[in-house]
Amino acid sequence: MDFLSLQLRIYSDKDCEVSSRNSRKAPDYSINLSTGRFHCPACNWSYTRRDSMLAHYRYECGKPPRFKCPYCQLCSKKTSNVYQHVRSVHPNEAVTLVKLY
Fold first, then answer.
1. Global pTM?
2. Which residue has the higher pLDDT, 90 or 29?
3. Which distant-in-sequence residues (6+ apart) come within 8 Å of 77 by Cβ?
4. How far apart are the first and last CA of the chain?
């Protein structure tokens, strides 16, 4: 048995090559064995780290933007995107954002 098999205690579906530490929690902990990436169960976007996929799934996937630029109409799901936008597009303005909800 290889290292990955030992670490994950594989429960696999031969058709999609998905494994999990617990077969009942496969959507939250699933990893594609052929690519080694974690896929969002809702949109199939993939990430190299499980925590990145879970953050995407909980806070971004299928949700409207939460943050807005105070100087124009740009909206984003991530604060970092709005801060970077303000720094580059509105360089003489204070770096801030508006929370939509």
1. 0.61
2. 90
3. 59, 60, 63, 65, 66, 67
4. 49
